Amino acid sequence: MTPYTFINRPAAGALYQALIRDPFYITLENRSSPDPATAREAMLRYYDYAMREARDHGRLTFPPDRTSGAAIWSCPLGQEQGKTLSIMKKEFIRDHLGQASLDAYEGITAFMADQAKGIVTDRFWYLSILGLSPDCQGKGLGRELMAPVLEETDSLGVPVYAESFIPKNFNFYLRLGFKKVKTIDEPVTGTSYTILARFPG
What we know:
By secondary structure, this protein is an alpha+beta fold. The chain has seven helices and six strands. It has helices at 9-18, 23-32, 36-57, 79-96, 99-116, 141-156, 170-175; strands at 59-61, 69-74, 125-132, 160-164, 179-186, 191-198.
């Protein structure tokens, strides 16, 4: 496997545990390798890369211990920068998860982008990944993870959105002011997901 240097392997592990039942990530993992250990390592790299990308080009927040999870945000970028980052991410997925995972990723994300048209504009900030290790859930840490960016977007007067395949997470988002906008059947995973949006008060 291509060498990779982690910026926060413990947090990547926490995200892996938090999202282990999410159909999007299950699909990427299952297509990356028939060997469970190799597939898991590929997903740890995926989550870490997402944190690196958010740190450098979006927003990245951690719980106080900085190891038990993360909130990963994408912010609006210029067209050329967005295109460059997209190419880099796809190259990363190809090199670290393999072509089959890249094909699944491209199929899912292209479908979701098309479904978001007319709902999401280029003003929206996007919560791409949110997760806490299971033993840290239910303690208010998720709200703490979200607070800095929600306060920032409220002060800027910009909306945010998220997409979730897990219905049990909806109440968390609703308590933070998100509203369910649209539920769609996604063909690659064979499951449905919901777009949730939050507008500044």
